[in-house]
Amino acid sequence: MSDLWIRRFRPRPEARIRLLCFPHAGGSAPYFAPLARSPGLPAEVEVLAVQYPGRQERRKERLVDSLPELADHVSSVLDPFADRPLVFFGHSMGAALAFEVAQRLAGRSDNVPRWLFVSGRRAPSRFRPGTNHLLSDAGIADELRRAGGTEPVFLDDPELLAEIIPVVRNDYRAIETYRWVPAPPLGCPITALVGDRDPQTTLDEAAAWRQHTSAPFDLKSFSGGHFYLNAHQQGVVEVVSAALRDVARQA
């Protein structure tokens, strides 16, 4: 099952740390391929990414519109990667999913993530209602254009757009119906990253991640909107790499 859910971009058998990335709503594992190829990432790090059902080579599989169910699936396939320290990075919906997976691992495994990076997502304790999953197909397309992060070729081609709309609607439903069930804070450090003009996450909402860890917390702000990281890949890599070097020293 791990072969279905987890993608490797540059296998590194000698890696001392694995960085597991969780894509945004409508996103897929290859979104993080540039991160895997980044020369700024420490050589001892192997980048992995979660591939959700219903897209690319998994396009014929049933979509999962429940974040807790997705978290159950992902947390159940991570044992093959438990031989080395894991660090999680999630963007938008992926941040909430990474957090839910971390909570599950903390409750039953020694292989809890050593660090959690949450990007472009307000803290689970800061609920904000959302109804994008109820929009018409045209409405969802407009929302994708506003948010950025989707290649124009997919939005301008009617056939391609018809393929991605059900996936995006499904993921919007998953994240907009998600409700955090209060639980003890994680024991790993959390770093929240956010664009200073992100309409989906204010700086205050991102700072609220502080209450979800008993370990150190940090907040990094970048110029830009919800997909600030597309323009600030090097800055994001620097933030992540600094933490990974700390984890490597302790491994």
Tally the helices. Answer: 9
Order of strands across the main sheet? 1-3-2-4-5-6-7
The chain-level mean pLDDT equals 93
Helix content: 25-40%
The N- and C-terminal alpha carbons lie at a distance of 27 Å
Quaternary state reads: single chain
Share in β-strands: 15-25%
Overall, the morphology is: globular
Low-confidence stretches: none
The biggest beta sheet reads:
7 strands, mixed
Order of helices and strands: HEEHEHEHEHHHEHEH
Q: Whole-number radius of gyration?
A: 17 Å
Number of strands: 7
Judged by helices, strands and strand pairing, the structural class is alpha/beta
Topology:
Blueprint: H1 2-5, E1 6-8, E2 17-22, H2 33-37, E3 45-50, H3 67-76, E4 86-91, H4 93-108, E5 115-119, H5 137-147, H6 152-156, H7 158-176, E6 190-195, H8 203-207, E7 217-222, H9 233-250
Parallel strand pairs: 2-3, 2-4, 4-5, 5-6, 6-7
Antiparallel strand pairs: 1-3
Helix pairs in contact: 3-4
Structure at a glance:
37% of the residues lie in helices and 15% in strands.
Structure description:
The chain is an alpha/beta fold. 37% of the residues lie in helices and 15% in strands. It is built from nine helices and seven strands. The protein has helices at residues 2-5, 33-37, 67-76, 93-108, 137-147, 152-156, 158-176, 203-207, 233-250; strands at 6-8, 17-22, 45-50, 86-91, 115-119, 190-195, 217-222. A seven-stranded mixed beta sheet has the order 1-3-2-4-5-6-7, sandwiched between helices. α3 (67-76) crosses α4. The longest helix has 19 residues, at 158-176. The model has no long low-confidence stretch (mean pLDDT 93).
